[in-house]
Automatic annotation (TrEMBL):
<dbReference type="InterPro" id="IPR036615">
    <property type="entry name" value="Mur_ligase_C_dom_sf"/>
</dbReference>
<protein>
    <submittedName>
        <fullName>Bifunctional tetrahydrofolate synthase/dihydrofolate synthase</fullName>
    </submittedName>
</protein>
<dbReference type="InterPro" id="IPR004101">
    <property type="entry name" value="Mur_ligase_C"/>
</dbReference>
<dbReference type="Pfam" id="PF02875">
    <property type="entry name" value="Mur_ligase_C"/>
</dbReference>
<dbReference type="GO" id="GO:0016881">
    <property type="term" value="F:acid-amino acid ligase activity"/>
</dbReference>
<feature type="domain" description="Mur ligase C-terminal">
    <location>
        <begin position="1"/>
        <end position="97"/>
    </location>
</feature>
Length: 115
């Protein structure tokens, strides 16, 4: 299970600051099981919807978390997490390859001078 593996890897890292997680998931995946693993290593949640008919809403993710922040897009969640992060913190992007791809697109666009 990917969430179990990721949790183990995160626990193996030196813990200097907080872990801020930008998360978006597909609603037909095991949201409860995934978040149950990750809750032990994440301090702050930045929940975003994924586009398309299979995308879970940020509110659906928050139902399983009980706390966290909700955003209208992965890009907004990423921007907020990066704004809140201090130098010693870790910003984790997880939940779906789609979430990671959105963040990579944002980073690539900004490197090329886009917004």
């Amino acid at each position: 299970h990917a969430a179990e593996y990721l949790t183990g890897r995160m626990k193996a890292l030196p813990k200097n600051g907080r872990v801020l997680a930008v998360i978006g998931m597909l609603h037909d995946k095991d949201i409860a099981g995934t978040l149950a693993w990750l809750k032990s290593v994440v301090d702050d949640w930045y929940c975003a919807p994924l586009e398309g008919p299979r995308g879970a809403t940020a509110e659906q993710l928050l139902e399983h978390l009980g706390n966290g922040k909700s955003f209208d897009s992965v890009a907004q969640a990423w921007d907020a997490a990066m704004a809140d992060a201090k130098a010693e913190d870790t910003v984790l992007v997880c939940g779906s390859f789609h979430t990671v791809a959105h963040v990579m697109e944002v980073i690539d666009a900004r490197r090329s001078g886009g917004k």
